[in-house]
Amino acid sequence: MSEEDRDRQPRLPLQDVPSELQEKIVNLNGNPNLNLYKILSNNPILLSSWIDFAYSLRRNCTTSRQLRELMILRGAQLCQSRYEWFQHEQMAKQCGISEEKINAIKDWKTNSLFDEKEKIVLELMEALIQNKGKLTDQLDEQLKKHFTEAEYLELILTGSFYVMVPTLLEALQIPVEK
After folding, report:
1. Do residues 17 and 51 make contact, with C-beta atoms less than 8 angstroms apart?
2. Which pLDDT score, from 0 to 100, does residue 8 have?
3. What one-character-per-residue DSSP string does 115-170 give?
4. What is the mean pLDDT of each run of 10 residues along the chain (178 residues)?
5. What is the torsional sign of CA 131, 133, 136, 142?
6. 147 Cβ contact partners less than 8 Å away, ≥ 6 residues apart
7. Which long-range contacts (CB under 8 A, 24 or more apart) does 168-174 make?
8. Is the Cβ–Cβ distance between 41 and 21 less than 8 Å?
9. What is the pLDDT of residue 1?
């Protein structure tokens, strides 16, 4: 963690996560002690909605968790979100992505570690961030070639959600857990 991160003060207080939401997070195999959840506990109703949507993206999709974690990590890189990278690097490893592949995400376009589907979703994440959501016709065709309509939507929703997360983290100056 950089000195800048250590010196950063969150813009809202780190609240205790309400017990019913702690239980909800634990039941989903999550960690209720994340600073993100503590900040969102300033509005428990929105925290509950956040949990429902975030965990739905993690658990109720038919696209592979590995594909979605690669997208999230690429988004964290592009948004320079240390917090997002820290959390999802662990999740990526847990779902079977090698450390070598994680370290190669920055160079995905030219790296043979990434297969065709992985390159398509990484290109999608870049389009969502760098092109503000505008997809080329070629990318649209590739997504439709390799994914069902439901999976296409899963990938767009996952990528879009994880464009919002680093924005929220930065706006509220949420520190990485020690």
Report:
1. no
2. 77
3. -HHHHHHHHHHHHHHHTTTPPPHHHHHHHHHHS-HHHHHHHHHHHHHHHHHHHHHH
4. 67 98 97 97 98 96 97 98 96 97 98 98 98 98 98 98 97 94
5. positive
6. 63, 155
7. 168/36, 169/36, 169/81, 169/83, 169/84, 170/79, 170/81, 171/11, 172/10, 172/11, 172/12, 172/39, 173/8, 173/9, 173/10, 173/11, 174/10, 174/35, 174/36, 174/39, 174/83
8. yes
9. 46
For residue 153, CA distances in Å to 17, 28, 119 come to 31, 23, 17
Q: Rounded distance, CA 131 to CA 177, Å? A: 31
Tokens 């990528």 label which residue? Answer: 159
